[in-house]
Sequence to fold (1253 residues):
Amino acid sequence: MKHSGSRSPRHPGHLTRRSLLASAALLITTGGTRARVVTKVLPWDPNEAYPVVPVKPGGYLFFSAAEAAAVDAIVDRLIPTDELGPGAKDSGVTTFIDRQLMGPFGGHDWLYMQGPFAAAPLPSQGLQSSLTPRQQYRQGLAALESYCKTSFGGRDFVQLNADEQDKLLAGMEKGEVTLPNFSSKMLFAAIHANTLEGYFADPIYGGNRDMAGWKLVGFPGVRYDYRDVIEKPNQAYTLPPVGMQGRPAWGAR
Amino acid sequence: MRWRSAILFAALAVIGGAKADPDNYVIARRGRALAIAGDCVACHTAPGGTPLAGGLALATPFGVIMTPNITPDDATGIGRWTKAEFARAMHEGRGRNGAYLYPAFPYPYFAKVTREDTDAIFDYLRTLDPVSNAVNRRTLPFPFSVRALMIGWNSLFFKPGPFVPDPQHSPEFNRGAYLVEGLGHCGACHTPMNAFGANKADQFLQGNRIDEWTAPDITNDQQSGLGKWSVDEVVQYLKNGQTRTTTASGPMRDVVEHSTSKMSEADLRAIAVYLKERGAAGGPVPASVPASDPRMQVGEAIFVDTCSACHTRNGAGVEHLFPRLADNAIVRQSDPTTLVRIILTGVRGAGTDVFPTSPAMPSFGYRLDDNQVAAVVTYIRNSWGNTASPVDAELVKTLRSHVAGPVERSAAQ
Amino acid sequence: MVRRLPRKDVVIVGLGWTGSILAYELSRTGLEVVAIERGPWRDTATDFNIGTAPDELRYAVRHDIFLRPKQETLTMRNNPSQTALPIRKWGSFLPGNGVGGAGVHWNGQTWRFLPDDFRIRSHMLERYGEGIFPENHHIQDWPVSYDELEPYYDKFEYLAGISGKAGNVKGRIQPGGNPFEGARDRDYPTPPMRQGYAQELFTKAASGLGLHPFPRPSANISVAYTNPYGCSMAPCTYCGFCERFGCANYSKASPQTCVLPVLVRQPTFEARTECEVTKVNLAGDGKTATGVTYVDAAGEEWEQPADVVLVCAYALFNVRLLLLSGIGKPYDPASNEGVVGRNYAYQTGSGSTAFFEDAKFNSFAAAGSLGVAADDYNSDNFDHGPHGFVGGASITSAHTNGRPIQFHPTPQGTPNWGSQWKKAVRDTYQRVTSVGAQGSVMSYRNNYLDLDPTYKDPLGRPLMRMTFDYQDNERKMANWMADRCDEVAKAMGAKTTQVNRLVGPWSVVPYQSTHNTGGAVMGSDPKTSVLNRYLQSWDVSNVFVMGASAFPQNAGYNPTGTVGALTYWSLDAIKKYLKSPGPLVQL
Fold:
């Protein structure tokens, strides 16, 4: 008499075994896992869910202190703290990026990274670089620092004033700045994209602290039920935003 | 006593091969229906094992008991038993060689089954293919391994004797009584127990905590029992596994899927009539927790943010999927164990041919800490027509350590 | 070393919408059916847990439940003169993975093609003459008609509980519905969704311009519903986490909500997940399939013999499997011969973004198929004579989400960062909406699929190569539609609008649509089709191939409704085949 067996156990403290499994080549490297056969009953085990592990802020796992300081300074210009509220730096975006780089995103683990890598791809062919985000940040930030020291009389990016930083970033955005051995456009694009992600992603990932990004635009988060909003078109939504870890009204954890 | 914490899945009953005597077909068929009503397969089948071939480990407070093989195998099953010996086991709790059986086998209830019916069940079992499965029947540690201790237990807690219909009630009521008090052995789970593992006869069907589940009050009580259910709703629950206020889950899911959903409508109706007409016996309704209470405030915020997308803002739920929490006796049990537990671990409801979806409540153990679970359950128990005792974070903490998975346990830190 | 398993009656490659439907309908008759799916099992409460599902970073940005390009991707180029390179990270389209397939993470827009769409070649020729057709086109009539498919559209709509308002019941036009749609026998199974503020404005504006707006048919359903299989669904709560996400509360039609609960109960059905079918095996003469070979999660190879092979692996991967298995002659654009990979098509998108002085659109209160559409410019519902293009588009006002990582619009000219950007994002978020046109793509000689000569998957097999670009015809049509959208946007009361045109070569980078069609098209002539009108392979008569790979070209609608209808239509033929094996269409 067949019935479905129990599921793979979850690893505490990691993305689950199944998502790791899916991220591997699904082949010989996965060591001993067979098919999961389903017959007769819908599979179900208690406690089965696949939450992400909440980021614990404090310290950096990837960035050196100098790198973190540089990223802090960059993201602070990209989304500054101003009268509209906290910006990227104060919202923990550097922590977000740091933790992302330590996960599968950081190594492009889920992407197709087999060669050959074309030297001159068409723009319509998209991402063709062999560099992973970890490499982009490590090499790109080093190149940036080298450039700054050379071009700004020995000063780091962090030591430039806001105007200088803005001008430099604008040039990098257009690809008009030539960093040593690294594309300024690639570095800018990477940091800019990750900044937006960190500012607007669920706070569980380390950024968007206190849901500052969501409060800026009025995005209520993960409440999952807006029938009341549809009932009242063109009216302000007043409930505070909520994330996957809740909100202050849920009581302190 | 019946402890089912070892059960993860109950196998489906399968009718065995053609060993039936053609003359006994009608009786064997009746016996099969009775075996379904008694849900023999739930205990007498090991996970992944052949139905009724025994080998399930029942965890009791006194140790583990392995259920015997009741297929007609000569060496390891009941192949050599006689009808009379089978009846004695059912009626007196005595094995073939006179050994005392433990009341993990609910003979105090089966004592009420008529001789005619035990004979029919026996005839049915003998139509099954004999399966060789030698089960170790001596697993309890000393002194509980001394079966003669049951003499004392029986003298205190077991009154043998057949079912006696009550002339004050209809035949339908008495049919229901016969089923519930006998083969159905509902009281084994739904009645509180004393320290010796015996059901407290004076609190029959008033609810019980078993295996970290709340087997609810199934008297006709308004606050915590079936008082607001109609007879039809009781029948529907047993037949299809769901009503507006509840979907059979946990141990009842197995009971519905393998037993009651396969019983005749007439028998289910009789059970419903009996349960509704035998009276209410609940405790006093506690004081409600006011909306201003901090636990209610926190609970409401959590409910709005994560529960209402299924159970709706006013607790109305959605038919066939999400139980109505408003004015719901299940929510108001004096023991909130089930509510807390299903929030921590999630739960899957019964799937039947009529309603196959078997909707599942997601697990929240990873997401809510003990205070938050206590708050939201307190809120639900005191909203939309419900009044019940608040829930303590300590209860959540203890239950979590028993039922939650590794990720969920970390949420408690 | 390959191990051979005991024979089954039917083996199904892929357990998405089409695989689930066929698996249930065939196993319930007592046939031994096994479905082999390379992704994992997925279910609502576990995989789309309400506390983990609404995670934009994980699902919308990092693509957690989609196929990982590492496992399989395609190479792409715009035309045969270029070298194709791998799509290393999904962008333009997002293929699914796992049980439920794209049925898990789709938006739920569920359309019927129009009657003219099924005979677009003949129709356009009759009405406009040969000159209307674009250069190098491969436009073909379908081998089925709308009328033949009507009962099967109905079946799929009732399976999924589609919420909508019929526009033409038995020939009588119904107010509030789409007056252009083909006649249907009865209304949708559930009423239309409640719409948002932008849709209110659009309805007024479009009506005022003489268009005929109607609520878009939606698989995010409006009321509690139990389908004919007995599976239950709940009403949509407008959570705004629809496309790219699994639904946490049973309110989006998917194999999980609509089919799997009854499918799994069938005693003769078995699902094997995390197993990748690598090949359909053929007998020595190449005319019969003997079953499939698959690789399990431990890397071991197994052979599953079967009497019938149903290829339900998604349009693109269907084509690749046929190429790798040697079923049908591969298409070569240089000689214009062969059929497998021929007539690949896609979808156009264009429109107008509308910025309002004052509004609270609340885009976060959204559903994948929330929206109001007008079909006045779709198919041949208007006079193409003056315009010089074929094809058409639905004009729609919709919000599928307001998730801020990917939705934070600013007016043209706003810097991309800094305090000015921040203020513009803040000011614009509630005051912006759009009118979009989703349009048809014809098939062409040089838009096709074949096997890449260089790049391989982890098993060492060649990736499929996609050669595709929008042609002048599509650009003209899409940009004309963009102007129509702009007219409506202005009429809605926008302070400023920004027209979004189809410019430049097709790029894999920005998301556009996952409506990949063609490559294994159905037809009446084996020289220009892979399948006959029953989706049966011309070459190997016990192989049937489901999915939008069967479309000879794409119409101005999402494909799933038609994919579902074709599945039920083919099912009848598969049952006939099982009674009496052989080609169902004699030439």
